Amino acid sequence: MAKGLQGFSWTMLLLLCAIQELGAWAVHTAAEGPGLGQPGDPALLVSGRVKRGWVWNQFFVVEEYTGTEPLYVGKIHSDSDEGDGSIKYTISGEGAGTIFLIDEITGDIHATERLDREQKTFYTLRAQARDRQTDQLLEPESEFIIKVQDINDSEPRFLEGPYIGSVAELSPVGTSVMQVMASDADDPTYGSSARVVYSVLEGEQHFTVDSKTGVIRTAVADLDRETQDRYEVVIRATDMAGQLGGLSGSTTVTIVVTDVNDNPPRFPQKMYQFSIVETAPVGTAIGRVKAEDSDVGENTDMTYQMKDEEGVEMFKVTTDSNTQEAVITVQKPLDYESKKVHTVVVEALNKFVDPRFVDLGTFRDQTIVRVSVLDVDEPPEFRPPSNLMEVQEDAQVGSVVGVVTALDPDTANHPVRYAIDRSTDTERIFDIDANTGAIVTGKVLDRETAGWHNITVLAMEADNHSQVSRASLRIRILDVNDNPPELATPYEAAVCEDAKPGQLIQTISVVDRDEPQGGHRFYFTLPPEATNNHHFSLLDIKDNTAAVHTQRVGFNRQEQDVYLLPILVVDSGPPPLSSTGTLTIRICGCDSNGAIQSCNSTAYAMSATLSPGALIALLVCVLILIVLVLLILTLKRHHKSHLTSEDDEDMRDNVIKYNDEGGGEQDTEAYDMSALRSLYDFSEIKGGDGGGGLGEGGPSGNPASERHALPQWVQSPDLDFSVFRDYICRKVEQADEDLSVPPYDSFQTYAFEGSDSPVPSLSSINTWSSSSEQDFSYLGGWGPRFRQLAALYAGRRGEEDSEES
């Protein structure tokens, strides 16, 4: 039957094509002149001349042709074709030579392959008519189109799947869930091949679908997520508007039922039991309970609360946001001896309540929690818990400060012993009686040194020292008046010489290390030794300060530049204590405005009105003075060095160069013996010895005897060497003080040659033996230069021998 319908449609199509092509041919002929047609056509007769062109018999080809023979498409024909085969017809373009073949003689076109409109809807080709002998174009090349005619060969398809939708539980009937759409590849402009309708194949008990739009809606109002949380619905799409013979496709739609808060929380048990030791600190978790809720997500969020007074006072309940459990913790210390069991009521309720479902019932539930307190051995407890004691700072050592009391809270009521944590009282200022808990002073107290003491008292069971309690105790030292008041600072004041009577000089304030409860009150007066003072007066201002004023007209700092004014300060006690301080008052010179310029001992101030020029001049003067002082010091040092050199020149030359060989007996200028001779009067020595030489009357006329007297000098018991000693000491001091010259210990260096010298000294100063004990014969071996010296001593030696004989 399908084939019959197909043939019928093709016949009608050919007819329509013939009418369409006839109209197109008439238009084409009128527009282009030489046109398409055959002899005898009405158009040719009307025009009065023969026109050349193409004649088309077919423009369409049906898709999905399944016949065994090539499918006839159409025919091209030229009006110049006389049927003798002299014209050759050819085609080119899409599918030419492969899909479409043409008979070169007749111009018939056939389709050799199965076509699919869904892949390609039309083909564009070009037709040519050529002379078979010359291969020249007899007609201009013309373009034509072969359209593929659609048949219903494509089923509807759901291209956007898989589909997942959602709908809230308990939604009313007709609530839109989602929309599905199917597409058909057939030609929507030809027939009903692409007209799609929708229907539900599975799940029609709970959902429906709009046949035209594909919108899925709820079919019932009692969808319950807790019963079934998802549905699989099969939707079918059929083309040909659902008529018989139409093609169809289907898809599965997953519909998730979302939750609403339609279920209240419920405790699985009506009673829970927990236990905890009585020493558990505040905040310790006792246990957890949880109310079940069939809902999901935020609809299961709950809060918990205590519903009885005892529970609110002793325990605290919080919600664990992760597990939605109620956490019960200790809020107040437990005591087994006071109460062994606590019974509380815990209530659970939803955070978010949907007002649409309030009529379903209360969204809360309650349960009973029983907490058993377990007994443990507890340390002693301090009673009462007061942590403040007071004691006077003048309390004697051993005085009782206070008593602490601790009791064993257990039923056994063990005796308690007390101690002080010495880490908090390292100086052992306090002691405690181990049995009574009485705290006594262990040292003398001083509030000014430490006004507060913080100690820790330990209380422990007598037979179990591991059970220890600690209590912090604050001891305040009460003040007694044991410190006299003192002046706040060592006051110094300045007053102008031209001061007038009643002028304020200084305001006096005092300090007192004591802290009386009623506050300080000080009294100021002059001590008895200062009552006759006529220069200054003291006024007590009554606010713990006093003012010192002048009492006379003008002062003279030439007569007295400093006044010491004693001030007596007394506190209010008890007992009243006093001290005397001194105010130092300096008399100073002032300018016309009363500004202090200078005092005798200290310049207190300088005028602030000096100009820059005056300051520069002052600095220049200071620099000049400094230069002058340096110059004077330099000249003085130079002069001193010169004098020292002149004083030491003679003696230093004689002593330092005493070991020089000299120029012989003809050299009379090598030594100046006058300086050495002047140090001691050799005439006295000669006179004492009875020998010749320098006598009291003057020089002797015998030069030889004068020369012989020098080496024969003999030490006398009555000789006084203080002259030499003083002279040498004076020179040493001058050398030590003068830093510009090297030290010249001339006499010490050259007066002694040393004991190891092979040649004995010739110095008469160091000759301690008598002249008779010396032998100068060795001088003869010293050479010609010492010949005269040897003869001198040898002659003197002969005279001495003759005198002895």
TrEMBL record:
Pfam families, per database record: CADH_Y-type_LIR, Cadherin
**Region forming the signal peptide:** 1-26
Just give the chief location class. membrane
Domain spans labelled Cadherin:
78-158, 159-267, 268-382, 383-487, 487-604
Q: Where are the membrane-spanning stretches?
A: 614-635
Q: Give a short account of what the protein does.
A: Cadherins are calcium-dependent cell adhesion proteins. They preferentially interact with themselves in a homophilic manner in connecting cells; cadherins may thus contribute to the sorting of heterogeneous cell types. PB-cadherins may have a role in the morphological organization of pituitary gland and brain tissues.
Q: What is this protein called?
A: Cadherin-22
Q: Which organism is it from?
A: Anser brachyrhynchus
Lineage of the species this protein comes from: Eukaryota, Metazoa, Chordata, Craniata, Vertebrata
The gene it comes from is: CDH22
